[in-house]
């Protein structure tokens, strides 16, 4: 899977530009260490990068740049606020995204990656689901419960937006650990929905914290575009009322944010 490289000098940047094949989509994330939305965006981009396999020549290249330390590069791309994403190919700017909208960022990357022949990895399952990681912040010194909760909720806010459709379940789609999760996976598969998933049994902070964050005490939970839809019964009811409820998020669906 692809990873994000931090560009630390202008020389390193010039070497990168000189070595990239003309077909490679370059994804550049401008950030500042003091801006909280940049940390959130970093989590989103790490998740997205993990969906793209490493290839030769590279179909995508992911880098991040401190907008203040490398101000000449920032000025060259008219970076006036962070986070700021620039997508280029063969030296040409294809699109820029200002702000921390995970949906806008995913849509832009998938659109231009697809146009260049790159595609997210779909090795996990036919629907193209991808497991989402939830990196924990480094801890030092005494733990402040209020601050700890605030940081957890920031993580959860990133996680629920990591993919247009996010399933928080017990186990994985290939090995559900409860009957309700198994039924939810089957329902998504039947509707050819592309989704990200998170195994809440692997992270107790997320497992307990998401109950409070979502004000929903049980699992599985299905989130669409960063909003909680509900559990198994709610999804069944939605599909009963509208059989096309999940169609915009299916593989080959019409919703750009969920396009494969």
If strands are numbered along the chain, what order do they take across the biggest sheet? 1-3-2-4-5
CATH architecture of the largest domain: 3-Layer(aba) Sandwich
| Helix content, binned percent | 25-40%
Q: Structural class of the secondary elements?
A: alpha/beta
**Mean pLDDT reading:** 84
Structure summary, number of beta strands = 12
> How much strand content do the residues show?
15-25%
**Annotated CATH homologous superfamily of the largest domain:** Glutaredoxin
Shape: globular
Number of helices: 8
Uncertain parts: 122-126, 254-260
Region (Disordered): 112-145
Family: Belongs to the glutaredoxin family. Monothiol subfamily.
Organism: Hapsidospora chrysogenum (strain ATCC 11550 / CBS 779.69 / DSM 880 / IAM 14645 / JCM 23072 / IMI 49137) (Acremonium chrysogenum)
Function: Monothiol glutaredoxin involved in the biogenesis of iron-sulfur clusters. Binds one iron-sulfur cluster per dimer. The iron-sulfur cluster is bound between subunits, and is complexed by a bound glutathione and a cysteine residue from each subunit.
Short summary:
By secondary structure, the protein is α/β, with parallel strands linked by helices. The chain has helices at residues 10-19, 36-49, 71-76, 102-115, 145-159, 179-190, 204-214, 232-241, and strands at 4-7, 25-31, 60-66, 84-89, 92-98, 130-131, 165-169, 171-172, 175-176, 196-199, 221-224, 227-230. The strands form three sheets. It has a five-stranded mixed β-sheet with strand order 1-3-2-4-5.
């Amino acid at each position: 899977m692809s990873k994000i490289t931090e560009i630390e000098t202008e020389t390193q940047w010039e070497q990168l530009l000189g070595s990239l094949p003309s077909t490679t989509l370059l994804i550049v994330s401008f950030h500042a260490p003091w801006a909280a939305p940049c940390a959130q965006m970093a989590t989103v981009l790490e998740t997205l990068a993990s969906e793209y396999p490493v290839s030769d020549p590279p179909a995508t290249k992911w880098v991040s740049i401190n907008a203040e330390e490398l101000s000449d590069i920032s000025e060259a791309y008219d970076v006036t606020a962070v986070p700021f994403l620039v997508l280029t190919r063969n030296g040409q700017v294809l699109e820029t995204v200002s702000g921390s909208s995970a949906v806008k960022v995913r849509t832009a990357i998938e659109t231009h990656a697809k146009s260049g022949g790159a595609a997210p990895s779909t090795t996990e399952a036919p629907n193209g689901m991808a497991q989402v990681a939830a990196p924990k912040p480094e801890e030092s010194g005494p733990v402040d419960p209020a601050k700890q909760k605030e940081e957890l909720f920031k993580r959860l806010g990133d996680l629920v937006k990591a993919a247009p459709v996010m399933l928080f379940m017990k186990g994985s789609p290939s090995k559900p650990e409860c009957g309700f999760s198994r039924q939810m996976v089957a329902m998504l598969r039947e509707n050819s929905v592309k989704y990200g998933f998170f195994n809440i049994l692997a992270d107790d902070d997320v497992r307990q914290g998401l109950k409070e964050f979502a004000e929903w005490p049980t699992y599985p939970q299905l989130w669409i575009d960063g909003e909680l839809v509900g559990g198994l019964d709610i999804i069944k009811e939605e599909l009963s009322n509208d059989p096309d409820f999940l169609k915009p998020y299916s593989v080959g669906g019409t919703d750009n944010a969920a396009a494969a």
